[in-house]
Amino acid sequence: AGILSLEEGARIIVLRARLMHECARGDGTMLAVGLTEEEATAVIARHDRTVSIAAFNGPKSITLSGPRLALEAILADLEPQGVFARFVRVDHPFHHAMMQPAADALTKKFAGVQPRPETVPFFSTVTGFRCDGADCVAAYWGRGIRQAVQFVPAVNAVADFGVDLWLEISSHPALSLSIQECLAARNEKASVIS
Q1: Please, which residues bridge with residue 65 across strands?
Q2: What long-range pairs does 186-193 form, CB within 8 A, spacing at least 24?
Q3: For 16-63, what is each residue's pLDDT tens digit?
Q4: Is 169 strand, coil or helix?
């Protein structure tokens, strides 16, 4: 969106990937669940408060992150109820407190970044809203490692902006269904292509 130069963007991609890969490997994992935020919070409270919500992917699509044993207990609780619950194939507890060292390291290593105002509208899954490019300082990129992904509010903000054609570019599309779920909750129809 013109916020970073090509070189800065490439640098942050490489740094972020390396720091996240090196942090908390084997200390936890992630569990995708078909629950609302309130239901997920209640399940966490029943089992292990060290588990956290890692991503708000849809109105009834949450990803949990934390220690494997705690997530296995949640899976064992949800499966007999017929609630969707599936482990994400990762060996890191992404967007969990255990990732804070990676967030801090990225913030420190990227401290000299000079973001610019965006040249096209920029909607952030860190904030969940339209974001001013000049606000994308090093701490912003660090928060993206540690904080829960705010996909639902970001999709809502983009939809409020008037977008009605959605394109997911990925070798393994994973968010098209989440976009459709978000739009359906708003009683809106849009074309989603993956």
Answers
A1: 30, 52
A2: 186/156, 186/159, 188/159, 188/164, 190/159, 190/163, 190/164, 190/165, 190/166, 191/164, 191/165, 191/166, 192/166, 192/167, 192/168, 193/165, 193/166, 193/167, 193/168
A3: 999 999 999 999 999 999 999 999 999 999 999 999 999 999 999 999
A4: coil
Write the CA distances from 125 to 11, 76, 131, integer angstroms.
Answer: 20, 30, 10
pLDDT at residue 115 tops 90: yes
- Report the amino acid identity of residue 62: I
| Phi-psi label, residue 128: left if phi above 0, alpha if psi -120 to 50, beta otherwise | left
Alpha-carbon distance of 60 to 13, in angstroms, equals 30
3-state secondary structure of 18: helix
Determine the pLDDT at residue 172: 81
- The mean per-residue pLDDT over the stretch 104-122 comes to 95
Entry pTM: 0.93
Q: How far from the centroid of its chain's Cα atoms is residue 188's Cα?
A: 23
Sequence-distant (≥ 6) Cβ neighbours of residue 144 within 8 angstroms: 16, 125, 126
